[in-house]
Amino acid sequence: MAGLSTGEQPRWVHCRSSRLVSPLKAPYVTAKHGLLGLAKVVALEGAPHRVAANVVCPGYVRTPLVDKQIPEQAKDLGIPGAQVVREVMLGETVDGEFTTTNDIAEAAAFLATLPSLALTGQSVVASHGLFMEQVAARRPRAARVLSLSPLRRGASCRGS
Fold it and tell me: Which of 64, 62, 55 is nearest to 128 (CA)?
């Protein structure tokens, strides 16, 4: 902590997809979720040094990894790639949009510039509303079922 606390307002902001879970990706999901615990430990240990630690959790960002997942999910679900994007990835957002790197940067900048420790050891979700229960309730039933289809078909767990 000593090295991190040399500034006037030391801030530790980590960005990880710690809110999304996917079937067949247990090692990936476990590693990402562990970073939430790390942020909480840094917040506790850093508090005496005025260090704040938080995590920005993005929704789906259109990256090469996501582009690779679209045809894989389409094959697993037996639906077109456009339907994977529209219903599985973005179906629970408020606007049907991917999270952008700018969205994430703005959330991180907000956390990095807070003057107090009122917001520390927390996760802030930048996802176009992806994790709002109200949106999930409005999502078409077919889309909710599609997102579970690999499990219903008895797919085995395999490493990612």
Answer: 62
